[in-house]
Design goal:
Rossmann fold; 12 strands; two-stranded antiparallel ribbon; alpha/beta; 10 helices; single chain
């Protein structure tokens, strides 16, 4: 079993993909290969593959509101609104979904998040706020691997939270390697930070990138996913026109006590309010989370949370993205930043897929 855990160090300079862009002006060449996306949300990773030149055929998603956004913005050829547990059992899938260049997926990961309950939630059935069906979140990764076994893509890419590498969650890491190995895939694991990839937020995520063994043989190179693009401080995306809004009492009480760049917990007498923070104009934003309510990043000068356009820029989402009924912060927080996927997809193509064509 091949097992590589790569903690990447920077070597590159400059920005390859713009974080400020629009769907209407983007040029998607569709000449790098075919992709299908699972746990697609509103299509963050889909937009990344398109920016990198791939043709994304469609998606599987359980949330009808997320699927509506995906269809509105991407007009997919194929879309399957159902749990992956039933989708993986389908025998009526079109032929072109077999032998894809990349099968992509971001299994829900709150069971492993350092901001969640972690071990106390493992093995429990849970559902998200949208009224989805109950699921055991820490088994969804293995449902995705079952789908990989069925569709046999050249490469499988799966994204998850950094917490999967920490503490007792590492037992799942070993199971994931073993499961990919059992279905004939060689797996690499990369811990990457969006802030080093031309995205205006800190966002550490784990990417499992696996190649089919009959293609890899013994010569599959270690992917070079080292990025060191200049970091983008908050002042580059700050909307200085947006005015203040009414704050929750607990936030309002502490707002003037929190210094720019600090967490509210540093000023809280009981060190509570984890996830509340204040921007610093010269630093990269904290991770954009999907949590609604009062937590999140507050402007350092104005008593407000980040505006819609600031969230879109921080997530490298196109400024003309149509959110329909979805809260922008929730959808962006649930999604892989498009530019992050574009960076990874470009390297996968250049180092793995393109050589297979020679």
């Amino acid at each position: 079993m091949s097992q590589q855990l790569l903690f990447d160090t920077p070597i590159d300079t400059g920005h390859k993909f713009p974080y400020k862009w629009t769907l209407k002006d983007a040029i998607f060449t569709k000449d790098k290969g075919k992709v299908f996306s699972c746990f697609a949300c509103g299509g963050g990773s889909t937009m990344g593959y398109k920016l990198a030149g791939f043709d994304v055929l469609g998606c599987n998603e359980i949330d009808p509101k997320m699927m509506a956004c995906y269809i509105e913005n991407h007009k997919p050829k194929y879309s399957y609104l159902e749990p992956i547990q039933t989708f993986k059992l389908r025998k009526d899938l079109p032929v072109e979904l077999y032998g894809l260049d990349i099968l992509d997926g971001s299994p829900p990961c709150s069971s492993f998040s350092v901001a969640g309950n972690r071990e106390s939630d493992w093995g429990k059935e849970k559902k998200f706020k949208e009224g989805q069906s109950l699921q055991i979140l820490d088994t969804l990764f293995f449902d995705f691997i079952d789908l990989v076994a069925e569709l046999q893509p050249k490469v499988a890419v799966a994204e998850n939270v950094k917490g999967l590498l920490m503490g007792g969650a590492r037992k799942y890491l070993k199971k994931i390697y073993k499961a990919f190995d059992a279905i004939g895939y060689t797996c690499q694991c990369h811990l990457l930070d969006a802030a080093n990839m031309g995205i205006p937020q800190k966002r550490e995520r784990v990417f499992f990138i696996c190649m089919r063994k009959d293609l890899a043989k013994e010569q599959m190179p270690k992917l070079d996913l080292r990025f060191s693009e200049p970091q983008i401080p908050y002042k580059n995306i700050e909307n200085k026109i947006v005015g203040p809004h009414k704050l929750m009492p607990c936030v309002d009480k502490l707002f003037d006590l929190v210094k720019p760049g600090e967490q509210f917990s540093e000023a809280h007498p009981k060190k509570q309010m984890f996830g509340y923070n204040k921007t610093h104009p010269d630093r990269v934003l904290y991770t954009i989370t999907a949590h609604l309510g009062g937590s999140g990043s507050y402007n350092h000068n104005t008593r407000r949370l980040l505006s819609k356009d600031e969230l879109q820029l921080a997530g490298s989402f196109p400024l003309d993205y149509e959110f329909l009924e979805m809260k922008p912060r929730y959808l962006i927080g649930m999604s892989v930043p498009p530019v992050m996927t574009a960076q990874i997809a470009t390297r996968v193509y250049e180092q793995w897929l393109k050589p297979l064509q020679i």
